[in-house]
């Protein structure tokens, strides 16, 4: 069945591809943040444990929104670790990171998600895909704020 939502097939495919990369980044960041929530230790334990929980909970909701937008555009949403590993710009953290190194890794991950969303935005905007553009704008706002909050923990 054809899809006639006012966005041509080629634009829908390019936007869905970009959103698939955003989904992979978001899921990878979710998994990393959840890992750090479980394994953080040190004097900032309580603060970081709670902050990481709030962030991974928000990310868990975000992956669903991104995947559903990909589906609304008529494309399959990636959903395997191998697909995420191939599509994500975020690398896996080393084992045994200190709390400060966890924060640094998460800052880099948050910023990576912003860059991915910012890269996809012009595709959605030029195709007049308001729902995708709105989703991308919201994701950039969340991740820019999270990166700022995490960076603030590194300042003395």
Automatic annotation (TrEMBL):
PANTHER family per UniProt: DNA PROTECTION DURING STARVATION PROTEIN, GENERAL STRESS PROTEIN 20U
PROSITE patterns: DPS_1, DPS_2
Organism: Niveibacterium microcysteis
InterPro entries assigned: DPS_DNA-bd (IPR002177), DPS_DNA-bd_CS (IPR023188), Ferritin-like (IPR012347), Ferritin-like_SF (IPR009078), Ferritin_DPS_dom (IPR008331)
SUPFAM superfamilies: Ferritin-like
Domain of life of the organism encoding this protein: Bacteria
Transmembrane segments: none
Location of the Ferritin/DPS domain: 17-155
Identification of the protein by name: DNA starvation/stationary phase protection protein
Family label: Belongs to the Dps family.
């Amino acid at each position: 069945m054809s899809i006639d939502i006012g966005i041509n097939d080629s634009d829908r495919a390019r936007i869905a591809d970009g959103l698939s990369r955003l989904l992979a980044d978001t899921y990878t960041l979710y998994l990393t943040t959840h890992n750090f929530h479980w394994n953080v230790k040190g004097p900032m334990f309580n603060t970081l444990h709670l902050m990481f929980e709030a962030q991974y909970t928000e990310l868990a909701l975000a992956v669903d929104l991104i995947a559903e937008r990909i589906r609304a555009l008529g494309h399959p949403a990636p959903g395997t670790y191998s697909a995420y590993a191939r599509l994500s710009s975020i690398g896996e953290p080393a084992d045994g990171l200190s709390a400060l190194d966890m924060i640094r890794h998460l800052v880099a991950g948050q910023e990576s998600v912003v860059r991915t969303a910012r890269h996809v935005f012009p595709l959605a905007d030029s195709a007049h895909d308001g729902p995708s553009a709105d989703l991308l704008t919201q994701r950039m706002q969340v991740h820019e704020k999270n990166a700022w909050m995490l960076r603030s923990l590194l300042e003395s």
